[in-house]
Design a protein that fits this description.
The complex is a heterodimer of chains A (222) and B (291). Chain A has 222 residues and is mostly helical. Helix content of chain A is 78%, strand content 0%. Helices cover 41% and strands 22% of the residues of chain B. In chain B, strands 1, 2, 3, 4, 5, 6, 7, 8, 9 and 12 form a 10-stranded mixed β-sheet that branches. In chain B, a hairpin with a 2-residue loop joins β10 and β11. Classes of the chains: A mainly alpha (222), B alpha/beta (291). Chains A and B meet through α1, α4, α5 and α8 of A and α1, α2, β2 and α8 of B.
Chain lengths: 222, 291
């Protein structure tokens, strides 16, 4: 691997895959988490326990399940998605979804104590309640997104199996590190690891800065 | 921003994302085939050297999934690949017999070597009989890292243990260690713990983290390591891109591919010997004592 264009390509794909996965998981998982926190329905508690347990799902197991689904001999084989970035996004979305749901549920449940009276007096309920609470919790939810992003970008087991670590197609930071390690190029592997770390740092710092600026604006307008 | 506006914008982002996703999955101009291959062809850099030349000539892109021979054949049997390039003749023949392959051709060869720490803890340096060497490793309880992953190298190793009439798996976890990993990772482990292992010569030469490991046994005829290329059977898996896959197989086993295989050098050494440009068929003819 050359430490220039190839690395940029790998970094780009890592970001594309993991950010897409987090975005999709957020779109599905945050409303679901809010629903778990705000709605009272039968079987809610078992669902919360199950989702919390799924937070610890080993990526390699998830990768295997997605592989069996997307394999040409699997139920979704006709889509031809195996060994594409789309397969990697699917695997990582499923990987971080439990994290997004469980953490969102906790965030919203924590805020509910503060907002319950107001919302009930305004008679906000159902889907509107979820949308409103998600909006009110947006900065805390950014942290949820970051936690999910951290898990996705650092994960190697699932993307290795469903992506195949194909050069110029599905090679991401973590699988590149695994490959260079197996080639005995330990210095290069560590260098890639440092790039990965810097990347996570930049994304985290970026989100914090955005949260801070928007937070200040809100205070001014309030 | 009202909650509704917020939802709408989120929806917009989602649709945009879906569009990029679909665009990303569509293959770009030109045909693409998937090659299920082994870690040795990837870790040695051979495929990185060969494939761009094939793509430039034909416009067919080749995506490589590098796993052990056993896994490569299993993936291909499920239809997750168009072509297979592996090195375990018995497994390849079984694959063909089961009807998963439509065509198999010899491509190239090199040989396996047994590597141990420099101080030769098993006392096998220079032995010409690989089975005798393994028996001595077992007798001296010298640590030995096995691939343990059903790869071509692992199959060869088990064949040699059988020839030595020893079942090392009884000792698994004591001196016999089953790594369950690729060749490069196994070499890393052997180097780190001062153990012996069996490796193909290509990965060995290309590897950059050998520690004080050195070749102690080479040249046994049983250490011959031939590679075969197989077309996944389109009758079994209709989505196989037969035309492009055949073009690749013809090129790899034809004069141009064979010449390039012979020309490939790593650290000034030839790693693979083409099977269809008949010249010198003896194995281990290229002495590889570490200088």
């Amino acid at each position: 691997m050359h430490l220039d264009a190839d690395v940029l390509e790998v970094v780009g794909l890592s970001l594309e895959v993991s950010l897409s996965a987090v975005l999709i998981a957020a779109i599905i998982g945050m409303p679901a988490g809010a629903a778990l926190a705000l709605w009272r329905f039968r079987g809610r508690q078992p669902v919360v326990v199950l989702i919390t347990a799924l937070m610890g799902l080993p990526p390699v197991l998830l990768g295997l399940i997605v592989y069996l689904m997307l394999s040409r001999s699997g139920p979704l084989g006709v889509l031809g998605l195996l060994y594409t970035p789309a397969a990697m996004i699917i695997a990582q979305t499923l990987l971080v979804l439990p994290i997004v749901v469980a953490l969102s549920q906790r965030v919203i449940a924590g805020m509910w104590e503060e907002y319950a009276e107001l919302m009930q007096s305004l008679n906000v309920r159902g889907w509107r309640l979820i949308a409103t609470m998600l909006y009110e919790a947006r900065f805390a939810l950014m942290t949820v997104g970051l936690a999910a992003f951290g898990r996705a970008i650092a994960e190697v087991g699932a993307v290795m199996i469903v992506g195949g670590n194909i050069n110029h197609a599905t090679r991401v930071m973590t699988t590149a590190i695994a490959l260079e390690t197996s080639r005995g190029n330990l210095a290069l592997a560590v260098a890639l690891g440092v790039v990965l770390l810097l990347l996570a740092l930049v994304v985290n710092a970026g989100v914090h800065i955005i949260a801070r600026i928007s937070g200040e604006k809100d205070m001014v307008s309030a | 921003m009202s909650a509704r506006k917020c939802l709408l914008s989120v929806l917009g982002v989602f649709m945009g994302l879906l569009a990029t996703l679909i665009a990303a999955t569509e293959t770009r101009a030109g045909e693409t085939i998937i090659l299920q291959s082994t870690t040795s062809t990837q870790n040695s850099g051979l495929l990185d050297y060969l494939l761009p030349k094939f793509t430039r000539k034909t416009g067919i892109a080749v995506k490589v999934v590098a796993v052990g021979t056993g896994q490569a054949l299993k993936n291909a049997a499920r239809g997750d690949g168009d072509v297979v390039l592996v090195h375990a003749r018995a497994l390849e023949d079984a694959f063909m017999r089961a009807g998963f392959g439509a065509l198999r051709r010899d491509v190239m060869y090199n040989d396996f070597v047994i590597v141990c720490p420099e101080d030769d803890p098993a006392g096998i340096k220079g032995l010409k009989d690989a089975a005798v060497a393994l028996r001595k490793i077992a007798e001296t309880k010298t640590r030995f890292v096995s691939r343990g992953d059903d790869s071509g190298t692992h199959k060869k190793e088990m064949e040699l243990w059988r020839a030595a009439r020893i079942d090392p798996r009884k000792e698994s976890g004591s001196w016999y260690l089953e790594a369950g990993r690729g060749m490069g990772a196994t070499l890393n482990m052997a180097a780190a713990m001062g153990a012996c292992t069996l490796t193909d010569r290509a990965t060995w030469i290309a590897h950059n983290n050998r520690g004080d490991l050195t070749i102690v046994v080479e040249g046994d005829a049983r250490l011959f390591n031939p590679y075969g290329v197989i077309l996944v059977n389109p009758k079994r898996h209709p989505h196989v891109k037969e035309k492009a896959a055949r073009a690749f197989i013809d090129w790899l086993t034809g004069p141009e591919g064979q010449r390039l295989i012979a020309a490939y050098r790593m650290k000034g050494r030839q790693l693979f010997f083409p099977m269809r440009l008949k010249r010198d068929k003896s194995v281990g003819h290229e002495s590889n004592a570490r200088k």
